[in-house]
Amino acid sequence: xxxxKIKFESILVKEHISFSKTEKTIHxxxxxxxxxxxxxxxNSITMKLHVGEASIVRYFKKLxxxxxxxxxxxxxxxxxxxxxxxxxxxxxxxTENMMDVIQKxxxxxxxxxxxxxxxxxxxxxxxxxxxxxxxxxxxxDMFSKIIRTGVNAIVINDTHFSYxxxxxxxxxxxxxxxxxxxxxxxxxxxxxxxxxxxxxLIVISNYSNSTLFSLADVFLKTNGFENExxxxxxxxxxxxxxxxxxxxxxxxxRDLEKTKKYVQGVTNTVLK
Length: 272
Prior knowledge:
Blueprint: H1 5-12, H2 21-32, H3 34-37, H4 42-49, H5 53-62, H6 68-85, H7 90-108, H8 111-123, E1 126-131, H9 134-146, E2 153-156, H10 159-168, E3 173-179, H11 185-196, E4 200-205, H12 211-215, E5 218-221, H13 232-253, H14 256-271
Parallel strand pairs: 1-2, 1-3, 3-4, 4-5
């Protein structure tokens, strides 16, 4: 989407405000990159601009916002408002958002990390796939796809069961963890338990500065965006599924004949 920066600024800043030098740096970044700000965290902006988190907080409070989430929501709505005024139907907005997420996710994918994750999965006797909430539905998608390639996998979302499974996991097991934030408490504990058993961890998350990132043996980055506006939920979901398909396809391509055999076997069993 081509942004009219002057029009965008007039929507976001409704009255004259005097900014400090640091706040001007933050403001200019937001005006120049409004679509990226939707995906940013406070920490990612501080790292990009080399400013303190407190400066960012002061900036959006000057604009009348109590927290960063509500600020980002208004940026999203401002972008939507501009699209509507430009005569772009909301269905085109949603389509554009989803295509944009896929392109951003593709750009962030490290194929060496994909190859390493593939090695770990195919060398494991047991693969545990975990995720909570929305991420659990993606974990289920992953399970339904990867089991067709002959990988011995199970999926969990019950906290108690996830801890129980780590008791019987060995160095020949691996875990694939989905977490949009990388800070899901249950998944952090599950990952920590896995590390204590020397279980290899593949983490799929939106943030490379998260706790789960620090625990991962392999990290695959998504580029989704979760919000309460139509399309946000599915954008984050699509980014996760896109990474899932890349990983499963990588596993399948290692031995196509074996994959075809297992796919046919699953199909025959289901059709009985």
